[in-house]
Each structure stands twice: as structure tokens, then as C-alpha cells.
Amino acid sequence: MKLPDIRNDNVARFLDSAAVVQETAEQIMKDFAMFGITITFSGNTAQAYRELHEQLVDQIRHLLANDYQRLLSVLYQVDITQREITRAGLELPDYNEMEVLAHQIIVRDLKKVLTRRYFKSQK
User: Fold this and answer.
1) Are 105 and 20 in contact (CB under 8 A)?
2) Taking a C-beta distance cutoff of 8 angstroms, is the pair 101, 61 a contact?
3) In which domain, by residue range, is 65 found?
4) 79 occurs within a structural domain
5) How wide is the angle at C-alpha 52 spanned by C-alphas 102 and 44, nearest 5°?
6) pLDDT digit string (tens) for 22-31?
7) Each residue of 59-100: pLDDT tens digit?
8) Single pTM value for the model
9) 27 or 14: which carries more pLDDT confidence?
């Protein structure tokens, strides 16, 4: 088993497992909770991306307008680089800036989950 190659154009492929979706949602909720921001997940794996993406866009919009420093702290915690944001913006031309950031948060936390699962399977 090798580490999965997650890209902006193949994220959905990795969100086909209910357990992976749940763990990714929990990772997003945990990352945002560290900054007093509530993200929820209904458990509906078929709608998980849309559900989480919409909430993240709303939170990012709020933070951009009211607490930019906290947004930067969240992005640092999630571990998203400017390079990744720029690349995602080019790869997702139909997304606005907030939608790109929300997508990158989901992608990054999905990578964290899959990396953890990979190393657990190696033991």
C-alpha cells in the first residue's frame, strides 16, 4: 500500500468510504474548534463535501470580514500554504477565493486522515 495521490481533481474518489468521510469531518471540526468555530456534520456521507464546503465558505467569509488574523491562524493550523491556494485557484477556475480556501481545507484534512490510515496499516 502506498500513500494516495490526492489532487484537486480527484478528491471525490477518496470520499467514497463512510469511515474516511466521518474522520475527515471530525478533523475539520477539531481544527476549527481550536479557534472557537463550530463546524457540524450531519453524517450524510453522500452530501458531506457540499455540507462541509458550504459551512467552511460561510466561516471563511465571516473571518475575512471580521477576524482575518484568526483565519490565518486556522489556515496555519490546517497547514495550507499560499502555493497550494494559488495552485487550487488555477485548477478550480469556477471557484471564488473563499470556495478555493474551503476546498483546500477539506483536501488537507482528507490527506491527514489518509496519511494516518496509511501509517496505521503499515504497523
Assistant:
1) no
2) no
3) 11-39+46-117
4) yes
5) 155
6) 999 999 999 9
7) 999 999 999 999 999 999 999 999 989 999 999 999 999 999
8) 0.86
9) 27
- Where residue 44 falls (left for φ over 0; alpha for ψ -120 to 50; beta otherwise) is beta
3-state secondary structure string, the chain?
Answer: CCCCCCCCCCHHHHCCCHHHHHHHHHHHHHHHHCCCCCCCCCCCHHHHHHHHHHHHHHHHHHHHHHCHHHHHHHHHHHCCCHHHHHHHHHHCCCCCHHHHHHHHHHHHHHHHHHHHHHHHHHC
| Residue 107, C-alpha cell as written in the block | 483536501
CA angle at 45 for the pair 59 and 14, rounded to the nearest 5°? 90
Counting the structural domains of the chain, the total is: 1
Is residue 2 assigned to a domain?
Answer: no
